[in-house]
Specification:
The chain has four helices and eleven strands, in the order E-E-E-E-H-E-H-E-E-E-E-H-E-E-H. By secondary structure, it is of the alpha+beta class. The strands form three sheets. Strands 1-2-3-5-4 form a five-stranded mixed β-sheet. Strands 9-6-10-11 form a four-stranded antiparallel β-sheet, with helices on both faces. Strands 7-8 form a two-stranded antiparallel sheet. Helix 1 links the parallel strand 4 and strand 5. About 5% of the residues have low confidence.
C-alpha cells in the first residue's frame, strides 16, 4: 500500500454524464420526439405525492421523469408591517430555487434572474385561485426546490401544479386547483406545406406543437407557451408566451394545454384523496 497517496474507495460508482459514448443526439429532422414512445400530444408520466415535508403546513412532491420538484407551504402567518400599514388582504410569497446539482451546469447558491422570474410567474399564476380576502394581515410562503430540471417550460408547469396541491394540502381555501402545462413550437422534417402561386410552387414551414417538451426538444424550439388553468371554473389564471409563432398555432396550443390540464387535474385530485385516506388510517 502506497502511503504517500490517498487510496480510493473499494466500491465506486460510474459518474453521471450527459451523453454516453456512442450516443446520437436527437434532431427535429427525425420526425419523432426525443422519446420515441411519445406522440406530439402526449405528456410525460406524472408522479404526485403530498406530505413530503413534515415541518410545513402543506407540501407536495412532483416528478415527470427527469423533472423533480419539492414544494413546501408555510402559513398563514402574521404579516410584517410595511410602512405601518397592514393590508386587508393576504399576500402570497413564492420562491423557487434550483439545487446546485439540478442542471447539467452547476447552479450557484445565490438566486439568479431566472429564479426570480420563475417565482414571479408562480405568484401570478396562483394568486387568482387563493382566497386571500379571507386572510387579512396574513402571509403565505411557498418554497419550491428544483431537484432535477429537464426543460424550462416543464419546470414552470410542474411548479404551478405542485404548489397548488401543496396549498390545498395545507388547508388553505381556494377557488379551484391550478394545473400547469407547457407546449413548444418545433420545426420538424415533416411540418411543411406547399403553396402554389403564379410564379410556381413554394414550401412554407409550419411549426409542430410538442406538449411537455424536454430539454433536448427545447433546444430546437421556435417558441413556447406555459398555461395555468383552473379546470372546474374553466378559467385561465396565467399565460406565458415566448418566441414567435402564428396566431393559429398559438390558439391551437392553448386548446391542447387546456385538454392536458384537465388530465393533470385528475392526478392532482387523486393525490389529495390519497392524503386524506392516509390521515384517516393514521387516526
Amino acid at each position: 500500500m502506497d502511503r504517500r497517496r490517498v487510496p480510493g474507495p473499494e466500491l465506486s460508482v460510474a459518474p453521471l454524464i450527459e451523453y454516453p459514448v456512442g450516443h446520437q443526439r436527437w434532431t427535429p429532422q427525425e420526425e419523432k420526439r426525443h422519446d420515441p414512445k411519445r406522440q406530439p400530444e402526449d405528456l410525460r408520466p406524472i408522479y404526485l405525492k403530498t406530505g413530503l415535508i413534515n415541518q410545513a403546513n402543506g407540501s407536495a412532491y412532483i416528478e415527470l421523469e427527469k423533472t423533480k420538484l419539492a414544494c413546501g407551504v408555510y402559513g398563514p402567518r402574521p404579516a410584517k408591517r410595511v410602512g405601518g400599514i397592514l393590508s386587508s388582504k393576504g399576500t402570497l410569497n413564492c420562491e423557487i430555487k434550483f439545487a446546485s446539482f439540478s442542471c447539467a451546469k452547476r447552479r450557484g447558491s445565490i438566486r439568479d434572474p431566472q429564479e426570480k422570474e420563475l417565482s414571479q410567474v408562480l405568484s401570478q399564476a396562483l394568486t387568482p385561485a387563493v382566497r386571500l380576502d379571507l386572510l387579512p394581515k396574513s402571509t403565505i410562503d411557498i418554497y419550491i426546490t428544483v431537484l432535477e430540471s429537464d426543460g424550462f417550460g416543464s419546470c414552470i408547469a410542474a411548479a404551478i401544479t405542485a404548489a397548488s396541491v401543496a396549498l390545498a394540502h395545507a388547508g388553505i381555501e381556494m377557488l379551484d386547483l391550478v394545473a400547469g402545462c407547457s407546449a413548444s413550437y418545433i420545426q420538424t422534417g415533416s411540418s411543411s406545406t406547399s403553396i402554389s402561386s403564379g410564379a410556381g410552387t413554394a414550401s412554407e414551414s409550419i411549426a409542430q406543437i410538442f406538449m411537455d417538451a424536454d430539454l433536448e426538444e427545447e433546444k430546437y424550439e421556435q417558441g413556447a407557451i406555459v398555461l395555468a388553468y383552473m379546470p372546474s371554473l374553466n378559467e385561465v389564471t396565467h399565460v406565458l408566451q415566448s418566441g414567435k409563432a402564428d396566431g393559429s398555432i398559438i390558439s391551437k396550443s392553448v386548446e391542447h394545454c387546456v385538454e392536458a390540464c384537465n388530465k393533470i387535474y385528475a392526478v392532482m385530485h387523486h393525490a389529495l384523496l390519497e392524503s386524506i385516506k392516509e390521515n384517516k388510517d393514521a387516526l
